[in-house]
Amino acid sequence: MQNEHRATARNTRRTFLQSTGAMAAGLCLAKTANAADAPLAVKGGAKAVTVSHDDATTWPRYGTEEEQAVLELVRRPDYGPIEAFEKEWKEQFKVPYCKAHYNGTSAITAMFFALNLPPGSEIMVPCSTFWATIMPMRFFGLVPVFVDVHPRTMNFDVEDAKRRLTKNTKAVFPVHYLGLPADMDHISDFARQKGLIVLEDACHAHGASLHGKPMGTWGRMACFSFQASKPLPAIEGGMGNYQNREDYERAATLGHYECPPKFAAGSEYAKYHGTGLGMKLRMHPMAAALARCQLKKLTSQNGAGIAQTRRLNDRLIRLPGLYEQQNRPDVERVFYNQNRFLFNESEAGMSRETCIKALRAEGVSVGAAGPQFQCDHPAYHEPQWWHHPPVIADHYAGAEELTRRGISLPYFTKDVPELIDQYIVAFEKVWARRKELANS
Ligand SMILES: Cc1ncc(COP(=O)(O)O)c(C=O)c1O
Hints:
By secondary structure, this protein is of the alpha/beta class. Helix 3 packs antiparallel against helix 9 (285-316). The chain has helices at residues 18-30, 32-37, 64-75, 80-93, 104-115, 158-163, 184-194, 245-253, 285-316, 345-348, 352-361, 397-405, 417-432, 434-439; strands spanning 97-101, 122-126, 143-147, 169-172, 197-201, 209-210, 213-214, 221-225, 238-242, 322-324, 331-332, 338-343, 367-368, 406-410. It has 14 helices and 14 strands.
Protein backbone atom coordinates (compact mmCIF):
# COMPACT_ATOMS: atom_id res chain seq x y z
CA MET A 1 0.00 0.00 0.00
CA GLN A 2 1.20 3.47 -0.78
CA ASN A 3 1.89 5.54 2.28
CA GLU A 4 0.81 9.06 1.67
CA HIS A 5 2.26 10.25 4.94
CA ARG A 6 5.59 8.56 5.20
CA ALA A 7 8.64 10.79 4.92
CA THR A 8 11.69 9.54 3.07
CA ALA A 9 14.14 11.04 5.52
CA ARG A 10 16.92 8.84 6.86
CA ASN A 11 16.27 6.76 9.96
CA THR A 12 16.94 7.63 13.51
CA ARG A 13 16.17 5.22 16.33
CA ARG A 14 12.83 5.79 18.00
CA THR A 15 13.44 7.46 21.34
CA PHE A 16 10.31 7.99 23.29
CA LEU A 17 10.92 10.74 25.81
CA GLN A 18 8.31 9.81 28.36
CA SER A 19 8.92 12.49 30.98
CA THR A 20 9.88 15.40 28.72
CA GLY A 21 7.00 14.42 26.45
CA ALA A 22 4.56 14.67 29.33
CA MET A 23 5.97 18.08 30.33
CA ALA A 24 5.72 19.38 26.80
CA ALA A 25 2.19 18.02 26.62
CA GLY A 26 1.21 19.80 29.82
CA LEU A 27 2.59 23.13 28.63
CA CYS A 28 1.08 22.77 25.21
CA LEU A 29 -2.34 21.66 26.39
CA ALA A 30 -2.46 24.55 28.84
CA LYS A 31 -2.57 26.75 25.76
CA THR A 32 -5.33 24.65 24.17
CA ALA A 33 -8.27 26.72 25.41
CA ASN A 34 -6.84 29.92 23.92
CA ALA A 35 -5.69 28.21 20.77
CA ALA A 36 -9.15 26.80 20.14
CA ASP A 37 -10.50 30.37 20.30
CA ALA A 38 -8.00 31.63 17.72
CA PRO A 39 -9.22 32.43 14.20
CA LEU A 40 -9.23 29.47 11.83
CA ALA A 41 -6.24 29.23 9.49
CA VAL A 42 -8.63 28.62 6.60
CA LYS A 43 -10.05 32.11 7.34
CA GLY A 44 -6.62 33.71 7.50
CA GLY A 45 -5.69 32.96 11.13
CA ALA A 46 -2.39 31.41 12.31
CA LYS A 47 -1.83 27.68 11.80
CA ALA A 48 -2.19 25.42 14.83
CA VAL A 49 0.49 23.01 13.61
CA THR A 50 3.90 24.58 13.35
CA VAL A 51 6.15 21.67 14.40
CA SER A 52 7.84 19.93 11.46
CA HIS A 53 6.58 16.52 10.27
CA ASP A 54 10.08 15.67 9.01
CA ASP A 55 11.15 12.22 10.15
CA ALA A 56 7.99 11.83 12.27
CA THR A 57 6.75 8.93 10.12
CA THR A 58 10.02 7.43 8.86
CA TRP A 59 9.90 3.66 8.70
CA PRO A 60 11.73 1.33 9.04
CA ARG A 61 13.91 2.69 11.81
CA TYR A 62 17.05 0.65 11.61
CA GLY A 63 20.10 1.25 13.79
CA THR A 64 23.55 -0.11 14.41
CA GLU A 65 22.27 -3.60 15.24
CA GLU A 66 20.70 -3.97 11.78
CA GLU A 67 23.75 -2.40 10.10
CA GLN A 68 26.05 -4.87 11.84
CA ALA A 69 23.86 -7.86 10.99
CA VAL A 70 23.90 -6.96 7.29
CA LEU A 71 27.61 -6.13 7.30
CA GLU A 72 28.38 -9.49 8.84
CA LEU A 73 26.59 -11.22 5.96
CA VAL A 74 28.42 -9.10 3.40
CA ARG A 75 31.70 -10.20 4.97
CA ARG A 76 30.67 -13.85 5.39
CA PRO A 77 27.74 -14.76 3.09
CA ASP A 78 25.59 -17.44 4.68
CA TYR A 79 22.01 -18.76 4.71
CA GLY A 80 22.05 -19.32 8.48
CA PRO A 81 19.89 -16.28 9.40
CA ILE A 82 16.84 -17.86 7.71
CA GLU A 83 16.73 -20.91 9.94
CA ALA A 84 17.66 -18.85 13.00
CA PHE A 85 14.80 -16.46 12.26
CA GLU A 86 12.30 -19.31 11.81
CA LYS A 87 13.36 -20.77 15.17
CA GLU A 88 12.98 -17.44 16.97
CA TRP A 89 9.65 -16.73 15.26
CA LYS A 90 8.25 -20.12 16.26
CA GLU A 91 9.24 -19.51 19.87
CA GLN A 92 7.76 -16.02 19.96
CA PHE A 93 4.45 -16.95 18.28
CA LYS A 94 4.28 -20.43 19.79
CA VAL A 95 3.33 -22.00 16.46
CA PRO A 96 4.22 -25.64 15.75
CA TYR A 97 5.47 -24.94 12.20
CA CYS A 98 6.53 -21.90 10.20
CA LYS A 99 8.34 -21.23 6.94
CA ALA A 100 10.09 -18.02 5.92
CA HIS A 101 9.26 -16.98 2.35
CA TYR A 102 10.50 -14.46 -0.15
CA ASN A 103 7.63 -12.10 0.71
CA GLY A 104 4.05 -12.11 1.98
CA THR A 105 2.72 -12.81 -1.52
CA SER A 106 4.82 -15.97 -1.85
CA ALA A 107 3.76 -17.08 1.65
CA ILE A 108 0.13 -16.72 0.50
CA THR A 109 0.81 -18.56 -2.76
CA ALA A 110 2.38 -21.46 -0.86
CA MET A 111 -0.56 -21.45 1.55
CA PHE A 112 -3.10 -21.80 -1.27
CA PHE A 113 -1.00 -24.64 -2.69
CA ALA A 114 -0.93 -26.30 0.74
CA LEU A 115 -4.75 -26.26 0.88
CA ASN A 116 -4.78 -28.85 -1.91
CA LEU A 117 -8.44 -28.05 -2.70
CA PRO A 118 -10.15 -29.10 -5.93
CA PRO A 119 -10.51 -26.42 -8.63
CA GLY A 120 -13.74 -24.49 -8.16
CA SER A 121 -13.37 -24.35 -4.37
CA GLU A 122 -14.50 -20.97 -3.03
CA ILE A 123 -12.55 -18.94 -0.51
CA MET A 124 -14.16 -15.93 1.12
CA VAL A 125 -12.01 -12.80 1.21
CA PRO A 126 -12.72 -9.20 2.23
CA CYS A 127 -13.51 -6.90 -0.71
CA SER A 128 -11.00 -4.40 0.70
CA THR A 129 -7.42 -5.60 0.94
CA PHE A 130 -4.13 -5.70 -0.98
CA TRP A 131 -4.30 -7.76 -4.20
CA ALA A 132 -1.92 -10.41 -2.80
CA THR A 133 -4.66 -11.74 -0.49
CA ILE A 134 -6.58 -12.85 -3.57
CA MET A 135 -4.67 -12.99 -6.86
CA PRO A 136 -2.52 -16.10 -6.20
CA MET A 137 -5.74 -18.15 -5.98
CA ARG A 138 -5.90 -18.19 -9.75
CA PHE A 139 -2.83 -20.45 -9.98
CA PHE A 140 -4.74 -23.23 -8.20
CA GLY A 141 -8.23 -22.90 -9.69
CA LEU A 142 -9.54 -21.39 -6.46
CA VAL A 143 -12.43 -18.93 -6.54
CA PRO A 144 -12.36 -15.72 -4.52
CA VAL A 145 -15.76 -14.76 -3.10
CA PHE A 146 -15.69 -11.11 -2.15
CA VAL A 147 -17.29 -10.39 1.22
CA ASP A 148 -18.17 -6.90 2.46
CA VAL A 149 -16.11 -5.12 5.09
CA HIS A 150 -17.66 -3.72 8.25
CA PRO A 151 -18.01 0.07 8.05
CA ARG A 152 -16.65 0.52 11.55
CA THR A 153 -13.67 -1.89 11.48
CA MET A 154 -12.78 -2.11 7.77
CA ASN A 155 -12.51 -5.87 8.38
CA PHE A 156 -14.22 -9.00 7.02
CA ASP A 157 -17.93 -8.82 7.90
CA VAL A 158 -18.96 -12.26 9.12
CA GLU A 159 -22.68 -11.43 8.79
CA ASP A 160 -22.18 -10.70 5.10
CA ALA A 161 -20.12 -13.91 4.75
CA LYS A 162 -23.11 -15.89 6.04
CA ARG A 163 -25.18 -14.56 3.13
CA ARG A 164 -22.56 -15.56 0.55
CA LEU A 165 -22.05 -19.16 1.65
CA THR A 166 -22.52 -21.81 -1.07
CA LYS A 167 -21.97 -25.56 -1.29
CA ASN A 168 -18.55 -24.80 -2.84
CA THR A 169 -17.31 -22.59 0.02
CA LYS A 170 -14.28 -24.23 1.58
CA ALA A 171 -12.41 -21.53 3.48
CA VAL A 172 -12.50 -18.00 4.92
CA PHE A 173 -9.47 -15.73 4.63
CA PRO A 174 -9.91 -12.51 6.67
CA VAL A 175 -7.31 -9.74 6.85
CA HIS A 176 -6.42 -7.81 10.04
CA TYR A 177 -6.59 -4.54 8.20
CA LEU A 178 -4.16 -1.78 9.26
CA GLY A 179 -3.30 -3.85 12.34
CA LEU A 180 -6.85 -4.19 13.72
CA PRO A 181 -7.70 -7.86 14.40
CA ALA A 182 -10.66 -9.22 12.46
CA ASP A 183 -13.42 -10.81 14.59
CA MET A 184 -11.66 -14.18 14.58
CA ASP A 185 -13.77 -15.55 17.43
CA HIS A 186 -17.04 -15.01 15.52
CA ILE A 187 -15.42 -16.02 12.21
CA SER A 188 -14.09 -19.25 13.80
CA ASP A 189 -17.54 -20.07 15.24
CA PHE A 190 -19.11 -19.56 11.81
CA ALA A 191 -16.39 -21.67 10.14
CA ARG A 192 -16.78 -24.47 12.69
CA GLN A 193 -20.56 -24.59 12.17
CA LYS A 194 -20.17 -24.73 8.39
CA GLY A 195 -17.06 -26.93 8.23
CA LEU A 196 -14.86 -24.22 6.67
CA ILE A 197 -11.08 -23.86 6.91
CA VAL A 198 -9.92 -20.68 8.68
CA LEU A 199 -6.95 -18.84 7.18
CA GLU A 200 -5.50 -15.48 8.20
CA ASP A 201 -3.79 -12.65 6.38
CA ALA A 202 -1.81 -11.13 9.24
CA CYS A 203 0.41 -9.06 6.93
CA HIS A 204 -0.49 -5.83 8.84
CA ALA A 205 -0.78 -7.25 12.33
CA HIS A 206 2.50 -8.58 13.76
CA GLY A 207 2.03 -8.60 17.52
CA ALA A 208 -1.72 -7.83 17.57
CA SER A 209 -4.02 -10.17 19.51
CA LEU A 210 -7.63 -10.96 20.31
CA HIS A 211 -8.47 -12.29 23.79
CA GLY A 212 -4.69 -12.47 24.32
CA LYS A 213 -4.27 -14.93 21.40
CA PRO A 214 -1.86 -13.55 18.78
CA MET A 215 -3.11 -12.89 15.28
CA GLY A 216 -1.53 -15.47 13.02
CA THR A 217 -2.35 -18.30 15.45
CA TRP A 218 -6.14 -18.33 15.01
CA GLY A 219 -6.20 -19.90 11.57
CA ARG A 220 -5.06 -23.32 10.34
CA MET A 221 -2.58 -21.30 8.29
CA ALA A 222 -1.60 -17.64 8.41
CA CYS A 223 0.76 -15.40 6.51
CA PHE A 224 2.83 -12.32 7.32
CA SER A 225 4.68 -9.75 5.24
CA PHE A 226 7.99 -8.14 6.23
CA GLN A 227 7.88 -5.57 3.43
CA ALA A 228 9.42 -2.23 4.37
CA SER A 229 6.22 -0.52 5.57
CA LYS A 230 5.04 -3.37 7.81
CA PRO A 231 5.16 -3.45 11.64
CA LEU A 232 8.11 -5.87 11.37
CA PRO A 233 10.06 -4.57 8.38
CA ALA A 234 12.83 -6.54 6.65
CA ILE A 235 12.48 -4.45 3.44
CA GLU A 236 11.10 -7.62 1.77
CA GLY A 237 10.16 -10.96 3.28
CA GLY A 238 7.30 -13.15 4.41
CA MET A 239 6.33 -15.92 6.81
CA GLY A 240 3.78 -18.71 6.87
CA ASN A 241 2.43 -20.13 10.14
CA TYR A 242 1.08 -23.68 10.03
CA GLN A 243 -0.80 -25.54 12.74
CA ASN A 244 -0.21 -28.96 11.21
CA ARG A 245 2.69 -30.83 9.67
CA GLU A 246 0.99 -31.72 6.36
CA ASP A 247 0.26 -28.06 5.55
CA TYR A 248 3.79 -27.04 6.50
CA GLU A 249 5.42 -29.72 4.37
CA ARG A 250 3.27 -29.02 1.35
CA ALA A 251 3.75 -25.23 1.64
CA ALA A 252 7.51 -25.64 2.13
CA THR A 253 7.78 -27.93 -0.91
CA LEU A 254 6.61 -25.17 -3.26
CA GLY A 255 9.58 -22.88 -3.78
CA HIS A 256 11.98 -24.42 -1.26
CA TYR A 257 13.96 -27.12 -3.04
CA GLU A 258 16.22 -27.53 0.00
CA CYS A 259 13.43 -28.24 2.52
CA PRO A 260 12.14 -31.80 1.91
CA PRO A 261 15.15 -33.56 3.53
CA LYS A 262 14.18 -31.78 6.78
CA PHE A 263 10.62 -33.16 6.74
CA ALA A 264 9.44 -35.84 9.16
CA ALA A 265 10.30 -39.45 8.33
CA GLY A 266 7.89 -40.90 5.79
CA SER A 267 6.74 -37.49 4.48
CA GLU A 268 4.98 -37.82 1.15
CA TYR A 269 6.78 -34.63 0.07
CA ALA A 270 10.34 -35.89 0.72
CA LYS A 271 10.67 -37.16 -2.86
CA TYR A 272 10.32 -33.60 -4.27
CA HIS A 273 13.72 -32.64 -2.85
CA GLY A 274 15.67 -30.59 -5.35
CA THR A 275 12.70 -29.34 -7.39
CA GLY A 276 10.81 -26.60 -5.50
CA LEU A 277 8.09 -27.83 -7.87
CA GLY A 278 9.31 -25.17 -10.27
CA MET A 279 9.55 -22.14 -7.99
CA LYS A 280 12.17 -20.56 -5.77
CA LEU A 281 10.63 -18.58 -2.94
CA ARG A 282 13.42 -18.63 -0.36
CA MET A 283 13.72 -15.58 1.87
CA HIS A 284 16.86 -13.55 1.28
CA PRO A 285 19.25 -14.11 4.21
CA MET A 286 19.86 -10.36 4.53
CA ALA A 287 16.13 -9.88 4.99
CA ALA A 288 16.18 -12.66 7.59
CA ALA A 289 19.06 -10.90 9.38
CA LEU A 290 17.06 -7.65 9.48
CA ALA A 291 13.91 -9.50 10.55
CA ARG A 292 15.77 -11.13 13.48
CA CYS A 293 16.79 -7.70 14.78
CA GLN A 294 13.29 -6.31 14.33
CA LEU A 295 11.61 -9.31 15.96
CA LYS A 296 13.47 -8.50 19.19
CA LYS A 297 12.08 -4.95 19.08
CA LEU A 298 8.59 -5.79 17.85
CA THR A 299 6.84 -5.48 21.21
CA SER A 300 8.59 -2.27 22.23
CA GLN A 301 8.19 -0.62 18.81
CA ASN A 302 4.51 -1.55 18.65
CA GLY A 303 4.03 -0.41 22.26
CA ALA A 304 5.59 3.00 21.66
CA GLY A 305 3.48 3.56 18.54
CA ILE A 306 0.30 2.47 20.30
CA ALA A 307 0.97 4.73 23.31
CA GLN A 308 1.54 7.77 21.18
CA THR A 309 -1.44 7.07 18.90
CA ARG A 310 -3.69 6.59 21.94
CA ARG A 311 -2.60 9.98 23.27
CA LEU A 312 -3.86 11.57 20.07
CA ASN A 313 -6.88 9.37 19.42
CA ASP A 314 -8.23 9.45 22.97
CA ARG A 315 -8.72 13.19 22.53
CA LEU A 316 -9.95 13.11 18.94
CA ILE A 317 -12.68 10.52 19.53
CA ARG A 318 -14.33 12.90 22.02
CA LEU A 319 -15.21 15.11 19.06
CA PRO A 320 -18.74 14.53 17.70
CA GLY A 321 -18.79 12.49 14.51
CA LEU A 322 -15.20 11.24 14.70
CA TYR A 323 -14.64 7.49 15.21
CA GLU A 324 -11.63 5.22 15.24
CA GLN A 325 -11.29 2.08 13.10
CA GLN A 326 -12.37 -0.02 16.09
CA ASN A 327 -15.48 -1.37 17.72
CA ARG A 328 -14.62 -3.75 20.55
CA PRO A 329 -12.54 -3.45 23.71
CA ASP A 330 -11.13 -7.01 23.76
CA VAL A 331 -8.62 -6.53 20.93
CA GLU A 332 -5.01 -5.51 21.31
CA ARG A 333 -4.46 -3.85 17.99
CA VAL A 334 -1.23 -2.56 16.49
CA PHE A 335 -0.92 0.39 14.14
CA TYR A 336 0.47 0.16 10.67
CA ASN A 337 1.02 2.73 7.96
CA GLN A 338 -1.65 5.27 8.95
CA ASN A 339 -4.13 6.26 11.64
CA ARG A 340 -7.57 5.79 10.08
CA PHE A 341 -10.76 7.52 11.30
CA LEU A 342 -14.37 7.47 10.20
CA PHE A 343 -16.22 10.72 9.85
CA ASN A 344 -19.97 11.08 10.35
CA GLU A 345 -21.04 14.30 8.64
CA SER A 346 -24.41 14.72 10.34
CA GLU A 347 -22.96 14.18 13.82
CA ALA A 348 -19.99 16.45 13.10
CA GLY A 349 -22.25 19.13 11.62
CA MET A 350 -19.96 19.79 8.65
CA SER A 351 -18.97 17.95 5.51
CA ARG A 352 -15.88 15.76 5.39
CA GLU A 353 -14.51 17.95 2.61
CA THR A 354 -14.96 21.16 4.64
CA CYS A 355 -13.38 19.56 7.68
CA ILE A 356 -10.36 18.26 5.76
CA LYS A 357 -9.85 21.63 4.09
CA ALA A 358 -9.92 23.42 7.45
CA LEU A 359 -7.59 20.87 9.10
CA ARG A 360 -5.13 21.05 6.21
CA ALA A 361 -5.09 24.83 6.50
CA GLU A 362 -4.17 24.33 10.17
CA GLY A 363 -1.16 22.24 9.05
CA VAL A 364 -2.62 18.77 9.72
CA SER A 365 -1.55 16.05 7.27
CA VAL A 366 -5.01 14.63 6.61
CA GLY A 367 -6.86 13.26 3.61
CA ALA A 368 -10.01 11.44 2.57
CA ALA A 369 -9.29 7.71 2.42
CA GLY A 370 -11.50 4.84 1.34
CA PRO A 371 -11.15 1.08 1.44
CA GLN A 372 -8.61 -0.76 -0.74
CA PHE A 373 -11.54 -1.96 -2.83
CA GLN A 374 -10.55 -4.83 -5.09
CA CYS A 375 -13.72 -5.75 -6.97
CA ASP A 376 -13.51 -3.11 -9.71
CA HIS A 377 -10.10 -4.22 -10.91
CA PRO A 378 -10.18 -5.61 -14.48
CA ALA A 379 -7.95 -8.53 -13.48
CA TYR A 380 -10.87 -10.05 -11.51
CA HIS A 381 -13.31 -9.63 -14.40
CA GLU A 382 -11.34 -11.04 -17.34
CA PRO A 383 -12.00 -14.79 -17.76
CA GLN A 384 -8.53 -15.38 -19.26
CA TRP A 385 -6.91 -15.16 -15.80
CA TRP A 386 -9.26 -17.52 -14.00
CA HIS A 387 -10.20 -21.18 -14.10
CA HIS A 388 -13.51 -20.18 -12.46
CA PRO A 389 -14.48 -16.49 -12.29
CA PRO A 390 -14.37 -14.61 -8.97
CA VAL A 391 -17.73 -14.09 -7.27
CA ILE A 392 -18.38 -10.35 -7.12
CA ALA A 393 -21.60 -8.72 -5.90
CA ASP A 394 -23.12 -5.55 -7.37
CA HIS A 395 -22.86 -3.59 -4.13
CA TYR A 396 -20.81 -3.64 -0.99
CA ALA A 397 -22.61 -1.31 1.41
CA GLY A 398 -19.85 -1.41 4.07
CA ALA A 399 -17.10 -0.56 1.59
CA GLU A 400 -19.26 2.20 0.08
CA GLU A 401 -19.81 3.72 3.52
CA LEU A 402 -16.07 3.58 4.16
CA THR A 403 -15.48 5.42 0.89
CA ARG A 404 -17.77 8.22 2.05
CA ARG A 405 -16.49 8.39 5.61
CA GLY A 406 -12.81 7.54 5.84
CA ILE A 407 -10.17 10.05 6.79
CA SER A 408 -6.54 9.26 7.29
CA LEU A 409 -3.93 10.78 9.58
CA PRO A 410 -0.25 9.88 9.76
CA TYR A 411 0.97 7.08 12.00
CA PHE A 412 3.82 8.74 13.87
CA THR A 413 6.75 6.36 14.37
CA LYS A 414 8.88 8.78 16.36
CA ASP A 415 8.17 10.45 19.67
CA VAL A 416 6.63 13.78 18.64
CA PRO A 417 4.65 15.02 21.68
CA GLU A 418 4.49 18.64 20.54
CA LEU A 419 3.22 17.65 17.13
CA ILE A 420 0.56 15.44 18.72
CA ASP A 421 -0.56 18.29 20.96
CA GLN A 422 -0.71 20.68 18.03
CA TYR A 423 -2.85 18.15 16.14
CA ILE A 424 -5.23 18.07 19.11
CA VAL A 425 -5.40 21.87 19.12
CA ALA A 426 -6.05 21.94 15.37
CA PHE A 427 -8.91 19.45 15.62
CA GLU A 428 -10.47 21.14 18.64
CA LYS A 429 -10.18 24.51 16.93
CA VAL A 430 -11.94 23.25 13.80
CA TRP A 431 -14.65 21.49 15.81
CA ALA A 432 -15.23 24.61 17.94
CA ARG A 433 -16.01 26.54 14.72
CA ARG A 434 -17.79 23.82 12.82
CA LYS A 435 -21.10 25.69 12.60
CA GLU A 436 -19.33 28.69 11.15
CA LEU A 437 -17.46 26.41 8.71
CA ALA A 438 -20.60 24.60 7.63
CA ASN A 439 -22.36 27.89 6.91
CA SER A 440 -19.52 29.53 5.03
C1 LIG B 1 -3.05 -7.39 3.38
C2 LIG B 1 -1.80 -7.77 2.64
N1 LIG B 1 -1.61 -9.05 2.31
C3 LIG B 1 -0.51 -9.45 1.65
C4 LIG B 1 0.48 -8.55 1.32
C5 LIG B 1 1.67 -9.04 0.53
O1 LIG B 1 2.87 -8.90 1.21
P1 LIG B 1 4.23 -8.64 0.39
O2 LIG B 1 4.23 -7.21 -0.05
O3 LIG B 1 5.30 -8.93 1.40
O4 LIG B 1 4.26 -9.58 -0.75
C6 LIG B 1 0.34 -7.21 1.66
C7 LIG B 1 1.38 -6.22 1.33
O5 LIG B 1 1.21 -5.03 1.44
C8 LIG B 1 -0.83 -6.80 2.32
O6 LIG B 1 -1.05 -5.51 2.63
